[in-house]
Amino acid sequence: MENNNTNTDKENKEVTPIKKGEVVLREHSFDGIQEYDQRMPNWWLTILWAGIIFFFIYYVVYYTLGTVPTSKESMDARVEAIEQLRKDALQKTLDSLDDDIFVNKLSMDAEFVAAGEEVYMGSCVACHGADLKSNGGATARPLDDGVWHYSDKPMDIFTFILKGTPADSTGYKMMRMPPWEQLGPDKVAQVTAYLISKNKKDFEKFKK
Ligand code: HEC
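Above: inputs. Below: predicted complex with heme C.
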């Protein structure tokens, strides 16, 4: 009995390498799985330490010093640049437009009006109908009834289409006109010219 006990003690003791580089199999086993007791290889340790050092450098550069923009910052900057481009494009279009140009030039230009009709058929027809009657006024304000609820000035109609129903308005029969800024000012100008060309009598006072 005593002998047996000593033997078990000896078996449980872990073995340490005697020679440098000696491969040691540790004596314990879990469910028959045994472990080598070896130093991690240098390539592995290099990656570990490089990773740890990289973390500190990265953290300091990005979050403490703030010298390099984070991906959110560079994204924001890009979005801002796009916004600026949009604003510039709108300003450029606005500068080139006025009531007179809409009535006497753009709405008389067959090509420009045809482009506007294409925009209309793509984006407006669902609510306003191909005949501009807005399903008898059931789905939106009719666009052929001689009534321009907000303003009958071409520039105001252009802005209305661009921005949609103003925030302070309750709309029409609980419905609001969505903004069409995403079309870009050029297409909104085309569709405005198309509507003017279809309602010539409403804009006679701007005729020259
Ligand atoms: C989702 C439905 C819908 C779509 C699509 C839509 N509209 Fe409208 N539109 C409305 C509604 C609703 C009104 C009335 C809003 C109000 O009175 O504030 C309206 C009003 C208008 C008016 C003012 C009419 C008036 O008598 O004063 C114009 C102009 C207009 N839309 C042009 C357009 C153009 C151009 C497009 C396409 C680029 C378009 N709409 C697409 C729903 C729509």
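Confidence is low (pLDDT under 50) at residues 1-10.
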